[in-house]
Amino acid sequence: MGDPIKKIITPMSLDYKITPGHAATPFLRGLVDGRLMAQRCPKCSKVYIPPRGSCPTCAVPTEEEVQVSDRGTVTTFCVVNLPFYGQAVEIPYVCASVLLDGADISFFFLIQETPVEEVRMGLRVEAVWAPPEERTPSLESIKYFRATGEADAPFDSFKEHL
Ligand SMILES: [Zn+2]
Prior knowledge:
By secondary structure, this protein is mainly β. The chain has one domain (about 20-160). It has one helix and eight strands. It has a five-stranded antiparallel beta sheet with strand order 6-5-4-7-8, with no helix packed on it. The longest helix has 13 residues, at about 20-35. It is globular and about 70 Å long.
């Protein structure tokens, strides 16, 4: 008797069209141009990225488009040590919650070029964009984030965004 079957590879595909709507369209188009477009709440002034078209706190539409920086601060992170099928990045690697400068909500990104043991809360990071000819209206236009070498952001500057 041979070894038990543990996995079966079955090629499959899923074709779909996405209609991003008024809020996400400028965000997705911005990614092609290397810009990060957010929206500001007219009531509480919080800046949301990616924009969803409304403020969940104030329950009002967010229509003002604002560009936020492609630099930010690591607010929290996790180190991925477990191998899994289809893994594209060598382990260990870090996924971090990054508070982009000018935004009020953090965003999850891959961290590369920075040793895993050097990633920490407060680390300043910047986006590494795909070359312009490879960009699409998707987050794949940002390859990853890496440390900038700036001094760490003080905890008080991001403690409200954890
Ligand atoms: Zn609001």
